[in-house]
Amino acid sequence: MDLGIRDKKAIVCAASKGLGRACAMALAKNGVDLVINSRTASELEATAAEIRAATGRAVTAVAADITTPEGRAQVLAACPAPDILVNNAGGPPRGDFREWNEADWLKAVNGNMVTPIMLIKSVVDGMIARKFGRIVNITSSSVKSPIPELGMSNGARAGLTGFVGGLARQVARHNVTINGLLPGPFLTDRLRSGRAEAARKAGIPVDEYIAQHFSKSPAGRAGDPFEFGEACAFLCAASSGYIVGQNLLLDGGAYNATLG
Q1: Buried-most residue among 13, 29, 113, 172 (CB within 10 A)?
Q2: Rounded Cα–Cα distance for residues 245 and 135 (Å)
Q3: 3-state SS record for the chain
Q4: 244 phi and psi, to 5 degrees?
Q5: What is the mean pLDDT of residues 51-73?
Q6: Predicted confidence (pLDDT) per residue in 136-192, tens digit
């Protein structure tokens, strides 16, 4: 299927591994040139080289902290007029809200709400002027079904979702769409590290533990990052201009509802 985005330009944040990397690869396979970002230069350069080799597309790696004004400026300098923006950042830590102080909350809100809003602010008017834009915010299944030990993620990402719900409907007439991708469990380093201790206590390898744990879900497994990347590319397609302000939940059916 031709998504109609060949030779478009995209910024993909936190793209050295995991779901961000999967999104970058899927876009490049559909002919998109990339600026990818993460904090760790060595991992980022390795990912950039892999995407170039697999797709033949131009990939510029910008090692910077996207949650800072300086980091955002570096990324935007490398791609000042993107057609596609994929917002992504590492999630806040798990824990009990009684353990978190004000600085913890401000860091979480900055990384998972303010940062994507600032990036949207920087690029959306250019997209409007060019009559094409696709913005995808990677948030979390916790936006729809809160996870108690992820209170900071629940709050910050839900705040972003609320803001975007209004803005998406203001810009849609200009062929600029803003949507959310809400991942459940995917086989990423983050999932593996989060389950490592439980696997150690169970005396089995972490991937075996994950397979056993998620065998109880409707899909019978955790997600493959490839599937997530393909969903991102679909939302960025030229033919997806009528998908406005939606939040696509990819959780293998874990969220049990008839509607919504």
Answers
A1: 13
A2: 10
A3: CCCCCCCCEEEECCCCCHHHHHHHHHHHHCCCEEEEEECCHHHHHHHHHHHHHHHCCCEEEEECCCCCHHHHHHHHHHCCCCCEEEECCCCCCCCCHHHCCHHHHHHHHHHHHHHHHHHHHHHHHHHHHHCCEEEEEECCHHHCCCCHHHHHHHHHHHHHHHHHHHHHHHHHHHCEEEEEEEECCECCHHHHHHHHHHHHHHCCCHHHHHHHHHCCCCCCCCECHHHHHHHHHHHCCHHHCCCCCCEEEECCCCCCCCCC
A4: -130, 125
A5: 98
A6: 999 999 999 998 989 999 999 999 999 999 999 999 999 999 999 999 999 998 889
The C-alpha atoms of residue 44 and residue 63 are separated, in whole angstroms, by: 7
Residue in this structure with the two tokens 């904090």, named with its chain if needed: 39
What single letter denotes the amino acid at residue 80? P
Dist. CA 221–CA 215, nearest whole Å:
5
Q: Which of 182, 193, 107 is nearest to 147 (CA)?
A: 182
| Cβ proximity of 123 and 138 under 8 Å | no
Do 138 and 159 meet the contact criterion of CB atoms below 8 Å apart? no
The residue type found at 229 is G
How many percent of the chain have pLDDT more than 70?
A: 100
d(CA 260, CA 242): 18
Identify the pLDDT of residue 93. Answer: 85
Q: Residue 194 pLDDT > 90, yes or no?
A: no
d(CA 240, CA 259): 21
Is the confidence at residue 70, as pLDDT, over 70?
yes
Could you tell me how far CA 236 lies from the centroid of its own chain?
13
Would the pLDDT of 47 be above 70?
A: yes
29 C-beta neighbours (distance < 10 Å), count: 17
Residue type, 72: R
* Structure-block tokens of residue 22: 């999967």
